[in-house]
Each structure stands twice: as C-alpha cells, then as structure tokens.
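Margin note from the TA: students keep mixing up input and output lines. Inputs are the sequences; the output is the structure of the whole complex. Example:
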Amino acid sequence: MKTGYKPHLIGFRTVFMAFLLVITFSGYSQDTGQITGRVLAAEDSEPLPGVSILVNGTSRGTVTNMDGEFAIQASSGETLTISFIGFETKEVAVTGGQTNYEIIMEPSMGDLGEVVVMGYGSQRKADITSAVSVINMENIGEVPTTNVSRLLQGQAAGVQVRQTSGRPGEEMEVTIRGIGSLGAGSQPLYVVDGFPVGTSLGQNLNPADIESMTVLKDAASTAIYGARGSNGVIVITTKSAKDGVVSLDFVVNQGIQNVPDGRRTRMMNGPEFAQFKHDSFVDRIRYFEQREPDLEEIPLEFRFPEQTTVSTDWFEEIMNQNAQFQNYNATLTAGKGDIRSLVSVGYINQEGAVIETGFERFNVRANIDGKINDFISMGWNIAASHSREDYASTDGRSALIGRSLWADPRYPVYNEDGSFNDFIGGTHGVFGTANVVQELHEMERNRSENNILTNGYLEFSFLKNFKFRTSVNARLEGTDQKEFRPSTLAGTGFNQAPPREATLYQRRNEVLNIAADQLLSYNKILGSHRVEGLLGFSAQEETFKYLQGNGNEFANDQVQYLSAAIRQTSTSGEADWSLMAYFARVNYSFNDKYLFSASYRREGSSRFGANNKWGDFPAFSAGWRISEESFMPQTNWITDLKLRASYGITGNNAIGNYSSLSNLRISNYVLGGAIANGQVLSNFANANLGWEQSQQTDIGLDLAMFDNRLILTAEYYNRLTDNMLLSVEMPVISGFTQSLDNVGQVQNRGLELALDYRTRINQLNLRSNLNLTINRNKVLEIRGENDEIWSGGFYSTYNVSQVGRPVSMLHGFRMMGIFDTEDEIEAWPTQDGAIPGTYKYFDANGDGEISYDQQDMIEIGNPHPAYILGFTLGGDYKSFDFNFMFTGAFDYDVFRNIEATTMNMDGVFNILQSGVNRWRSAENPGDGRGATTNTWKWQRESNSRYVYDATHVWLRNITLGYTIPQNPVIPNARVFFSAENPFLFTSFPGTNPEINQRGGINIGVDDEAYPMPRTFTLGATIRF
Amino acid sequence: MKKYMHIKLICLGSLLAFTACDEEFLNKTDPTVLVSDNFYQTETQVIQAVNGVYGQLRPLHLNQWQYTEFISDNTTLHFNPGNRGSGPSLEALEFWQYNPATPNITNLYNSTYGVMVNVNTTLSKLPESVASEAIKTRSEGELKFIRAYLYFHLVQHFGDVIIITEPVNSPAEAFEYERQPVETVYQQILSDLNTAVNALPVSYDSDQVGRVTKGAALSLLGKVHLTRGNYGLAIDALDQVTSMGYDLLADYADIFDPQNKNHQESVWDIQYQGDNQFGVNSNFIYTFAPRESFGAVIDFPGQEGGGWNTPSNDIIAAYEEGDLRKEVSLKEGYTDLDGEYVGVPFINKYNHPHSIRGVTNDNWPVIRYADVLLMLAEAINEVDGPTGVAYGYLNEIRDRAGLDPLSGLGQDAFREAVLDERRIELAFENHRWFDLKRTMETQELVSFLNAYGLQERANPTTSREGIPFSNGDFIFEAHEILFPIPQDQIRINSELTQNPGY
C-alpha cells in the first residue's frame, strides 16, 4: 500500500544538510596579512562593485563592495586574480610592503580569444568558420531544474527547446534547425565530455555539473560526427578544476511549485453539468419528437439540476498545491599543481504538481587530470547517479489529466465513511471511470535508475607539434520499473466498475555503451600560417537488455510482487548496434585573416544493409576576417568583422537496429491440443538500406562592435535532407504494406540572428541577449509525385506531410459554422446525417458532397512557428544582481484534441464551462463554437474548430540575487530568489502551448499532458 | 562468442588502432528473432513455417464475421452513440456504407495477402529444403489448401484479384502484378485444391490434429464447384467426404463445446486455446456479448461486450417452433446483475466458461459435416431435383434439431428450404453472405437485402437511443456485392483497377 510520495533518499539528505552546516560554521584562520584595494574601470575610472578577487591556489576570495573596494588575506609572493564580466581578467602579484592596490580593469576584448569546445577538440572563437552557438551559462539564471536540457532553453538561435510537460525530471524536446527527417529521428546528438551518448540526455546529468555547452549547427561543425550529425550536435563539458583554484562551493535551493489558476481548464461543476444533461434530454425530445418533454422523461438525477449537492473539481483534487523543490550541491575543486581534481555531490528532489508524483536524484562526480610528465598527461572522469521517480500516466484523454477533466463532477471523492468513492459516473450515458484521486493514491508506479558515465584519456605529446590521445568512454545504465494496479480501482476503459483484476508490471533494463577514440593531432604556427590537423578513429557499441514480468490476478492487494500473482508471464530481449569511423580535419589560417577548414569522416554502421554499410561525410568551410584587412577604415566602433561560409554532408542513422534485415516472428498454432511453434516473416528486407543524408550550406556573419559591447551573429542556412529513411508503401500482395527505403527530400531553410549587448550605466551593469530563429520547412519529395504521409486519426486530427508543404501540417475539415435549420442543410453540399446544430464543413473537393472520410479534409493548421525568440536581460547593481529570461514562439497552430472530448456534446463526458453557449435551437444558436447535443456526427471529426493559434511568450525565469558582503564566517556568499515559468502570455486556451502529444515530428496536437507548474525558490551559493 | 569478444577488444581497446578492425564488428542481427535468410531448410524449420501460416489464420478468423455474417441479414449491432471510436468503420459493413477507404475492408485485403506471402515463400523454398519427402508433400498440400481457401474468399469478396504464387524479391516487382479475371482465379484455386486433395492425409496422429485433411480439401473443392454451378463436380467431391468417417454429433450444443474440440462432425476448425497466456486464444464472446452486460453474460466482474454481430430480429424470427438449435446459437436477452431482463440479443455459440478474462478456448468451425451434407443436398437438387438422397441429408440435419422432416417440395422450394436450413444450422459461422450470393441473382439479392434493411431501419433489433439512421444506411446497391479494392493499393499503383460503382 502506498502512503504518499516520499523521497527515499531522505536519510542521505539529512546527513548532507548536517555536513553543510558543520562546514559553514567551521571558519578558518590564515597566517597572512590583510591587503586592501580598489578596482576601477579603465574607460571612466568609475569603481567596479562585485568584482571577484581570488588568491591563486587558495580558497581565499572576495568581491568588491559598492565602492569597488575589497580587503583580503594575502601574503607576499601570492598572486591575486581579479575577474569581472566584460573585462579582461587581471593578475596582480602581492609584493611585500604594499598593502593597498589600485587595480584598473580593461574592457574585455570579448570572447574572441575564448576557446570553444567543438567536436573532437576545441578552437579559438576567432578562428571558427562554422555555425556554432556557445551557451552563455551566465544568462541562464538560477534555474530550479532537474534536467540539463532546460539550460538550452531560449539561449541559442536555431535551437528550439520545447517544454512539453511539467512532469518532474522530464527532458525537453530539442530541435536544431527544423525537422529534417520524416522517418528517422530529428533529435540532436549529445556529446558529453567527448562521449557521444545518443539523441537523448536522459535524466541523469546534474545541471550543476555543467561547465559549458556548445551547439554545433551547420554541417562543417557536425560532419565530424558523420551519420549522427545531421540534426545538430550539442557538446557538453562538465566542470573540472580550474588552474590554481582551490575552492569549496555549496549551492542550496529550495522552494515550492504550483499550477496557477490561469493554466487550468474550466470544466462544468456539478449543478452545471446536471443542467447540461437535463437540457440535452429536453433538446432531444424537442428535436426528434417535436414536442415538449414531460418532467418524468428526464432521468431523476438530472430532473432538478439545482438540487445537485456534490460538485467535485477533479483537476483541483489531484493538484499538489505546494509541491516542494529542493536542490543541494557541493563541489570541491583542487586546481593546484600538476594534478587537478574535482569532486561534486548533488541531491535534487522535486515533488510533482500532481499528487503522489515526484522525482529525486543523487549525483556524484569525480574527475582528476593533469600531467604525469612533460610528455604524458591523463584524466579520468566518473559520474554516477541514482534517481527515482514516482510517476503516473497523465497524458491524453484516457489518462489522469484527461479524466480529471471529463469525469462526472456530481460524485464525491470520498464516501461518507471516508473510503474512496471507487466508481465515478456510469449512469445515463455518462462514462464511468476510476476515481483519479484514488488511482494516484493506490496505484504504485515507480521507476529507478542507476547510471554510471565514465571516461578517461591518456595523451602523449611528441615531436613538439604532435599529440596522440586515446580515450575510452562507457555508460552503464540500469533501470527498474514497477506498476501495480490494485483490484480496488475501476478499469482503465470506460464503464469498468471495480473490483477488477489486479495487475503488476515489472521491468528491468540494462544498457552498456562503450566507445573508444584514438586521436592524433598536429599543431603548428609558422609565421603567419597556422595549421591544425587531426586524424581519428572511433568505434562504439551499445547493448540493451531487458527482462519483464507481468502478473495478473492477485490473492490480495498487499503483496505486490510477481510471486503473489495467480497468473504470470515473462519476456526478455536484447538489442545492439555498433559503429566505426575514420576521420580527419584540417584547419588553416593565414595572417589570422583567411581561415579554412575541411573535415572528412568515413563511417560504418550495423544498422544499415549489407550493401550499404559505409558512408562518407565531407565538409568544408572558410572565413574571412574583414576587420583585419588594411582597406578597412580603422574605425573604433568595429572590433571584429568576419564573414564565413560552410558546406558539408551529414547523416542520420536514427532508425531501428535491424531494419535492413528480414526477420521472422513467432506465429504459433495449436495442434493436438498443444502449442505448435510457428514462424512467419515480419518485414520486407532491404539490403540496400543506407544513410539518410543532409547537405547543408551555411553563410554567417560575426560582427563585434563598440569594444565588444555589441556582438551580432547572423546566419543563413539551407539544409537539404535526402535519401530519407522512410517506410515506403508497396503493394500488399508482397505480404507487406511498406518497406524501409532511402527516398524523399526535405528542406529546412532559415535565418538566425543572435544579438549580445552589454553596457554599464554608472554602477548598473547590463547584459542582454536576443536570439531569433526563422526556419522554413518544406517537403520536396516523398516517394513520387502527389505522395503524402498521413498519421493520426479521423476523430483526432491528421498530421500530413505533402510535397511542397511543411512536414506534419494539420489536416481536417474546414468548419464553416453551424447549421441552424434543415433548409440550410438542404442548400449546403450533402452532409449525410447532418441535423441542425451540427458543424457545417467545407466541400473542399467540390463534388457536392462532404464525405465521411478524408476526401474533403484540407490543411487546417500550421504547427511550425513562423519564428521563435529567446531574450535574456540580466545585470547587477552594487551587490544586487538580476536575470530575466523569456522565450516566445509566434504564429503557429495547435489542434486541441482534448476538446473533441471536453466539447463532446453526447453527455458522456463533463464538458468545458464554455459549453453552456452551445447550439440549442435556431433561436438559441449559442456562440457558434459548440454543437447540438442531439447527435454525435459532424462535430468531433478532425476540423478547424479545434485549431488554435498558440503564439505565446513565456517569462521563463526571474532570478534576483544579493551578494553578501564579505565577512569572516562566510567569505563569499550570495543569496537568490528564482521564479521559474512565472508568466505565460498567450491567447491559447490550453495549459501549455508547447505541448507535443504525439511526439516526434507529428507536432501540434494537444490532448492534455502533465500540467506546467511555476516554481518559486530561495537559495544560496557559498564559496570557500 | 569468443571471437566476438576478441573483435570487440581490438576495436575498442587498441591504443594504436588506426588499422581496420574486422568488419564483423558491424554485423549485428537481432538475437531475439530468427533471420529469414537461413530459414526453411531443415524439417523442423519447414514444419514451423507451415505452422506459422496456420497461426496467421487465427487473427484472420477473429475478424471474419464482419465480412460474411455481420454484413448479411443474420446479424446487426447494438449502436453505441457514446463511444464512436472504432464504430464507424465497422458500421460501414453493417449498413452497406463501405467505400474504398473503409479501414476494415483494407484490413481484410491486407491480412489475406499477409498470409499469402508466407504460403508462397515456404512453397518456393520447399524443394531446396532437407525435409523428408513425406513432410514436403504434406506441407505442399497444407499450404496449397490454405492458398486456395484464401483466394476463394478473395474472389468472392473482390471479384477479379491479383494472383500471386511466389515471393517478390523487390518492391518494384510487386507493382507488376495485375488483377486476374475471376475465371483465372478459380483455375488457380482448383489447381491448388487438386494438389491438396492428393497430398493430404485423411487423418493425423492425435498430436497433429488440427492440420487440414483430405476431407477438408474435398469439402472445399465441393464448395468451390457448388459456387460456380458445377453441381456434378461438387457431388463427386462431396460424396467422397461421406465415406471418410465424419458424422453429425447427436447434440447440437456439443459441436461448439471447447471440451469437445475436433470431433466427428468437425471437418476443419481454426484451432484456438484458452486458459493460458500463450496468445493463441480466441475471444469471440467478448466481441459478440452485449455492450452493457457488465458481467451478466461473460462471467467476470463488470465485463462488458463489444455489442457487435448481434442476432437480428429477422433471424430470431426465422427459427421454427421447437428448434433445439435456437437456445444454443443465440440468446434473445439476458438478466442483468440487478435481476432485470435486458432484451439485447447475442450470439451464444461461442459462450463458454473460461478461466482468464479475455482469453477463450473456443475453436472456429470453418467446415463441418453438416455443411457438407447440406451442400450435397443443394447440389443433388440442382442436378436431379429433390431426390430421396437429397431429402435424406436435409432431414438428417432437421432431425437433430428436433424438427419434422420435410417432404413433397418442388425443386425451387427445396432449394429455398436448404438455404433456410443452412441459415439456421450454420448460423453465425460465416456462411450466410456467400450463401446468399451463391443462390441469388444480383437483382434478387439487392431487393432481398433492401427489404431486410427497410425492416431494420423501421424497427431496429436494438435501441439506437433516439439517434436516427444516416440517409444511406441499410441501402444496398448492386455494385456493393463486391467490395472495393482498397484505396491505398490503387493510390500507390495507378495501374490497378477498381470495381465498378466505387
């Protein structure tokens, strides 16, 4: 029996907190003298507050006060590192006798000297000739999140990050430069510390461990990842010790979450629903029998709606109004000497906005790296996590959220004796369903996951310019899932009163992924020539195994294990894939002015047909730093100007593991009363199956102005995906309706604009980032002319990909209004079965009949935003700092599938409060949005009535911070307040305009998902 | 496995591995299933391939009622105004509203050819296999019998159809096939059946019971001849079946009792097995039981039925007074758990106790000896009129049902009597649609069905809760005698022709 959501790592948390407290108050003493000083800006000699001062190789640090003054313990011979955003970091040696220092900070020459992590290496930002976005970690704010994917939100042009659900721990959906594939996946490849972990980050990485993130967008930067590069690559580097820094950092963040009123759907309450049912009986008799009904003809329970005493808001009942959020991190870094190391631990616990759900995770990471001698260096990084989630089936109309909307509100949650009322509705046509509150309390659903991610390298330097690096990466993941549905709950279908058969599902997965890279690099500067070369070999293999057991029918609901099941079944399986690749890259620059880069990868994959296992992925790029040319006037406002172009070919292998093979499946029979083993073909083989290929051209402009205060990056790209991995229809006389083949073309063209602006007004430092993405997607070819891919259903909606149009457009009837009279129906093209009050549809093919199939269905919505925006405004004033982050998506449509249920006039479901304004008669036609209750036909078919503009702007995060003045107990501390997802500005009636019910490329459908809470937290960071 | 580990080490571990590692590293096959390339070789594999084809007949027959019983005057549905989810495409069959896009017709077409590919693939690999000649011969007979059975259904449903008797090697090849005239399809059927008749044994050892026999092949051959009006040939084939040891069971109820599977009257049953979770079970009663019976018909708490294939008022009225078969075949209503009688009829033939919810043990009778006898009576009547032999077969059936023997009928009246008897004796066993098509001319069938439709529209067997019929419901048009070729098939292959009227 479940007793509510309880973090099971609670013991750990207590110890952790105690540890934190002890550390905090232990204090310290130093045998050094105090020095003082003042930090000024070079341009205007104004004092700079909030500047970080650190004594190299120690944990001693401080920040300047409002007047730019500081005091710190330091002794002669030590060095101070003074750093501040927007200024060049400065080192000042402490000399004997001098106790007061005036330090002048020069404005930063920007991030041009900065080194950016790329695929298989890094590059000076100034030398980059491809399209990459570096996530500015400073702009993210203090984000109360469990998942690293959140850090990408709103930060980079060309990167769409959709938070499709408010479920704790949920990974967001990331798409780079549009949907590039109809058949294979469109998710980017994630590379963590050089290890390509796949197209999902999962739930295991600790956001607090992230040092940097680089998004590789064009082919020149991703082709080095070959057959996994075409949807973009996100390169993540985790924290390691910084040279010379020894520190101990704590982060504590705690708060609450709730779903605001504005993000709730208004359903009818008890009396309203009774009135609605009452009226529907009246209307039916009036229409079909042309008379006024007698009172007795209305079922007793609806006869006097105002006497309805019970009114349950089921959605409200399953909300956890003050769900807790807690996050603790501690990081110890030791960066002194040749060997540096970092150890971090973290614990996060997020209760769900829905009761009885939640996510918690414990992370630990340790790395060590450094020089063994002048020739050999090495490093090892190991990260482990344990997470546990109490989840529920929340998404879709049949799941908890949907049911909490449509369940009959005239039933109480509890019986008078306090027990659960175990069957809701089920009378007079209202669908009976399980009590959602009871289901959340009594059903055990949890998943735990253990994950180890580790990598190590050895690097040899030789012949001055050469380095050879060999590395091994491994990911070991085990998950354990359990679902027990007790007999006390009603069935999952309609009208399935309890008791039912108890069911149990348990499953264990194991994934082992191993990769090894061998890299030989060459680096040489010869006068004005700079050459970098790379040769590499990479191999990777993944094995997945599972073991699953199901139990049915239990003697009791208390023992929830397979052994207690009267009937048990089990299954197991295994799958694997491998790849191997050779690659090379050359970067060449002349005079820091003319930049060239070329790369090539040859990759083989187990996933492809015997005749097509290997693919080639070349890429070229060039850059021209115009600002370095002598003909450029030496204006002082252009700091840097670079024009660049790239072209390359990348691939996508996100299809099933064994798709090219013809496999057999079991098809057993019964002979002589016993099971007789049988085998039949399960698919059509295609030994020619190969890569999906993307050719991408990118033209970019980088412009830095006014001493790097304004940095503009603009990109144009054209990505053409062909040989798509697609199920191709074939005549079914072959035995199959489709086979997987390489066909078709999809184009994504777009513009990206990123604008960074920093300024300083007196003591107010401001920084802002605006990024704009405009992507236009078009299907150029599928399998032949006029071909289309339909997915979805007649009673939901169709996502249709047609040649000449963007992928996955919403298709359905165009709703032209509501029929008021029989005459109107007569005058309209034939709509068989239409009666007054049903929707009037457009006869799209003009044949005089609206047929009850797809023939008159046309495009009714475009689910692709015309443009998306990310905007960050941050800064500090004296000891205070702030950060606001907005995301927005404009001009796109979402099909509110749930309204086919919540505006279903049959009276089988509770409906939206706005359903009061439905059509009742020609004289009382309502608001034109709700149909008659007299029939079911011509109102819930996919049609434009349910399409809404989902344009929105989210204020995603507000962070307000205060840096505590230095004091002996806490040398370096900051407290902050953070609000996550506080405001949503939209006219979209659903609870989340970014919802993507169908997942993958079939975007734009809303059937209700886990609600999006807003989170308010208070936290502190403390550094020793 | 050792070799594999070795490769892995070279590929992943070598420090200086710019050298190629074995290509084997990239060859992966699904360890949980077999790959077809090296199958169909040993005797066990051949037997498993044939069993697989039988196995595909299980799901096929779970839905066959839609196209052969439901569509006819025998059954209707209990309209569900609330849950319109899967309803409309099934209702299209009942109300004769189908069109080339009707999903259930596409399902029929696709799943039939989905069995065919395994028949053809196995047949094509048979000569090269190392199975014994006896098994090869038997397997050929079984596969060709099944192929004939599938084409017999296809040709009756769709008219001209594509004949494919070998596996295709590339998608392009599949585009080269065209529909063949009905006559050619029948030649293919007869050729396959003649092979099957010669290849199949009269009976099997007890551990192989369930495979098709010579008797089944002859019965099907007789039915094909009967359908084509070759009555003499039909009699020749069916007569042979009468001396193969088949007999009517004394009690009609015993025919359908799962305790009694593969009895003397059973010529060919689709085999299912319940009371376990091996996935080879049937579930007919779950489809046929009344929607709102909630445990009153199927003995599991709260268990509802599908409300499909509901016996029509018309067939209920067709039972003669005292017919013992009525109570076995159908129930006119049930008593709900509150003790109230609910007048929603349902098919009872496949309603037997079972231990696991949703998992029933009922076999599906495809050909039984009563069918053979009635076919013989029908054929003899066409050749020689109602002879004593013909009466004998008919009255044998009637006698078991507790009905008086018939006598003194003219040829036409006897034909009608046999059709009526078939309707009742073989009720809900997927014969009615083909029986009507076989025995009536097009116009006759059109008016016959419309008369029935009018009656259902005026007085539906079950309540529609006030929801009116759509205009086209229960209006049968002549072209609807043949199903349309599924739209998807024509869309991807414009060379493919459609049946007239669609």
